[in-house]
Design goal:
Layout lengths: L1 H30 L4 H8 L20 E11 L5 E13 L4 E14 L1 H10 L6 E22 L3 E20 L6 E17 L4 E26 L2 E26 L1
Antiparallel strand pairs: 1-2, 1-8, 2-3, 3-4, 4-5, 5-6, 6-7, 7-8
Length: 254
């Protein structure tokens, strides 16, 4: 009887020690787990909710001059077709803000609609022709990104907005010869440039300009209007004109 009692005591003690060892190992494994909530409470306070994206830039613009040569076409001129050539000189104070001076010169001619109008009716529609412009613009660049090209290369590009004020030269189309005029103009442009080295980038601009231009109606000498023979020109007042152009060019960064 005594032997059985001692044997049962030994078995019970062995089970207790085994269970205690198993619990100890479980606690040890649990202590190895990372408590995310404790880390959040310790390192991520409510005041840290406002943060900025940190991104390495391979090609920087801050405190650098640049020169752009570009060519393009008018986008919304209902009377003219041709090309526009331009140059821009600018400087960036930091990665976001810059200043730019731009000169554009146009080589435009009557489009097919105007030619058909002339051939059919023998007169030219009343319209003005854009010739050149000067603008001084402020530049803001809110977007900068990297893009993979078929997993072979990474290109770096940014997108910005420019707003400028300047002077625009245009011609009033007349039967006896065009008349050149200058007027104040405003510019709003959206551009994107793709860098392919430290000093060179491809740049595309979509440029909108607004200007108040004089309008004139004229007739060829001897034209019969309502039973009256008229000639010369007639002032039609002024009108706000919106010109849109697409320019593509190469930028050199110094």
């Amino acid at each position: 009887m005594l032997k059985k009692t001692v044997l049962m005591f030994i078995l019970t003690a062995s089970q207790a020690f085994a269970q205690q060892a198993a619990d100890s190992k479980a606690d040890q494994r649990g202590s190895d787990k990372l408590d995310i909530k404790k880390l959040e409470q310790k390192y991520w306070a409510a005041k840290d909710d406002d943060f900025s994206v940190v991104q390495n830039r391979r090609y920087v613009k801050a405190e650098r001059f640049y020169l752009t040569g570009a060519a393009g076409i008018p986008f919304n001129d209902p009377y003219s077709t041709g090309t526009i050539a331009g140059a821009s000189l600018g400087y960036f104070f930091n990665e976001r803000w810059g200043l730019e001076g731009t000169y554009n010169s146009a080589s435009l001619k009557d489009n097919d609609a105007v030619k058909q109008f002339v051939d059919t009716y023998g007169v030219i529609p009343d319209h003005n022709v854009f010739k050149s412009s000067y603008f001084l613009s402020g530049i803001w660049v809110p977007f900068y990104a990297k893009m993979s090209v078929v997993d072979k290369a990474i290109i770096y590009f940014d997108m910005g907005i420019s707003f400028g004020v300047g002077s625009l030269n245009y011609e009033i189309t007349q039967f006896e010869g065009n008349v050149s005029k200058d007027t104040m103009a405003y510019k709003l442009g959206v551009f994107q440039q793709i860098f392919f080295s430290e000093h060179f980038a491809i740049r595309a601009d979509l440029v909108n300009t607004w200007s108040t231009q004089e309008k004139m109606k004229y007739y060829a000498p001897g034209t019969n209007v309502g039973g009256t023979v008229v000639g010369g020109q007639r002032d039609l007042g002024s009108e706000t004109i919106n010109d849109t152009s697409l320019m593509i060019g190469i930028t050199y960064w110094h």
